[in-house]
Specification:
Blueprint (H helix, E strand, L loop, with lengths): L13 H4 L2 H31 L3 H37 L3 H28 L1 H5 L6 H16 L2 H15 L4 H32 L12 H26 L14 H33 L2 H4 L2 H36 L3 H28 L1 H6 L7 H17 L3 H16 L3 H24 L4 H5 L1 H29 L1
Length: 479
């Protein structure tokens, strides 16, 4: 039996008292803005790399599964800590909340070590499985190795931002992610293009000489931004987050705490791992058109993921805020606030994704034109193929909004397995087989229809699980 003593519930916490609409807006807006900035810097990153060559752009596409798994592992531990910490604060148990934070830090460091080992010894083996040209392979190895060897930045950033979110202090994540992204955006052209490239492409003359590092320079800019954000997140927790105490005594792993974190965190990691496997498989499907189109379909696929993040990142900001609010009020036994949060999140998510759908339908030429600046035949083929792809894939945006908004309840209420199942069915059970079967038609355009098909499957499962979970966990509280 735990020897932790619960303190009186903290009735003045805004997650208990503020109207849910205003609460969700106040918490989600900083997250949405900061994550939108993150999406923007990913696009800027790809833009400057596209000025190097189409092979360089392709390298980022093939590096994405590793980066996605990196972020997924960081987010998985952070989500588990977030859920337990918010619930503990809602129950008035600060001791358990602090142990959740401390144990999360230790678990994070273990994962950092694994990715560093992969960066040192595993990247060449990873790129050997792709049927790509040697230039793209070399670019990819250098980019992925640097990102993995200095992976601690993204892990610390994600975890410590979640500690801020767990106690309702999301406004500080606007500064952490914003500062990291701005630094990355400033460093990108400097390290990718060098002094001469800066002057010829941007008309900016640097007072010092910097060599052009190309794709490796993009990786350096990325890790510098991540480390800057991580340092800021740690500082904000130490100075602005009195609800979470970071002490050495809380770093000692405890089985009950680790188990509670992993129950929610592992499904989240699996979901992101599924995303990496999906990305890997889809790249293989698109490389099946190499005889007709070279690496262009795979490059378009990578660019699509960057462009969709403009709308998905704000949506995930709403999702992250919802998880904290729902988990807190589940612990505080406030069913009306849980229901109100879900309704507000659903309306907001639909609004964002409908705007995204409209933009992808009306302006796909403008979006793809960003990455066709080189003007050669490869760039023209990229833009032409991308226009058709954007219009087809964006059909699933409003459907995805429903699944993501309601899916927040799975993690917040401690049933992350539901989120894992829906993600597995969407990305592997439905998407990859559909993409492969459609590729047999010999048309690249046909493959893009696999995304709307998979999203329909996912949202049906999400609705079934949501109704079941709501009846089991929330309805009894209303009685």
């Amino acid at each position: 039996m735990s020897n932790e003593k619960a303190s009186p519930r903290l009735g003045d916490n805004k997650m208990r008292t503020m109207p849910v609409g205003r609460l969700l807006f106040s918490m989600a807006l900083p997250l949405a803005i900061s994550m939108l900035v993150q999406a923007f810097y990913n696009i800027v990153d790809t833009y400057f790399v596209s000025l190097v060559s189409a092979d360089a752009t392709g390298a980022l596409s093939f590096a994405f599964p590793v980066q996605n798994l990196q972020i997924g592992c960081a987010t998985g531990i952070a989500v588990g800590v977030n859920s337990l910490l918010s619930k503990s604060l809602g129950e008035g148990n600060p001791e358990r909340a602090n142990r959740a934070a401390g144990n999360g830090i230790v678990m994070m460091l273990m994962l950092v070590g694994l990715f560093m080992l992969f960066g040192a010894f595993g990247t060449e083996a990873y790129y050997s499985v792709f049927d790509i040209n040697e230039t793209t392979r070399e670019y990819g190895i250098s980019y992925t190795s640097i990102c993995c060897l200095f992976t601690a930045g993204i892990f610390v950033e994600v975890l410590f931002e979640r500690l801020l979110q767990s106690s309702g202090r999301t406004v500080y994540t606007l500064f952490t992610q914003g500062i990291g992204a701005v630094i990355n955006i400033i460093m990108d052209p400097i390290f990718i293009l060098g002094s001469e490239g800066m002057e010829s492409v941007l008309g900016i003359s640097l007072p010092f000489h910097v060599p052009a590092y190309g794709v490796a320079g993009a990786a350096v800019a990325t890790v510098i931004g991540q480390w800057a954000a991580a340092i800021m997140a740690v500082i904000f927790n130490l100075t602005k987050n009195p609800d979470v105490k970071l002490k050495l005594s809380y770093l000692k792993l405890r089985r009950d705490i680790v188990k509670k974190i992993l129950v929610v965190g592992i499904p989240s990691i699996i979901m992101m791992a599924i995303g990496s496997v999906m990305n890997f498989c889809m790249n293989q499907v698109f490389l099946g058109f190499a005889d007709q189109h070279g690496q262009t379909p795979a490059n378009v696929f990578g660019i699509y993921f960057k462009l969709q993040s403009i709308f998905l990142m704000p949506l995930f900001g709403i999702n992250n805020a919802s998880i904290s609010i729902i988990a807190y009020n589940y612990g505080a036994r406030q069913p009306k606030r849980i229901a109100g949060t879900l309704k507000c999140a659903l309306v907001s998510a639909l609004s964002i994704m409908l705007v995204g759908f409209g933009i992808f339908q009306v302006f796909p030429d403008v979006l793809m034109g960003i990455f066709g600046s080189a003007g050669d035949e490869s760039a023209k083929a990229l833009v032409s193929m991308g226009i058709s792809a954007m219009r087809i894939v964006s059909i699933h945006f409003p459907i995805a909004a429903v699944g993501i908004a309601l899916g927040a309840s799975f993690q917040a209420l401690g049933t992350g397995i539901y989120a894992t199942i829906t993600s597995l069915c969407r990305q592997l059970v439905a998407l990859v087989p559909a993409a492969y079967l459609l590729s047999l038609t010999g048309s690249v355009d046909a493959v893009w229809w696999s995304f709307p098909i998979a999203e329909v499957v996912s949202v049906i499962l999400t609705l079934i699980f949501f109704v079941r979970l709501y009846r089991q966990r929330v309805k009894p509280m209303e009685a």
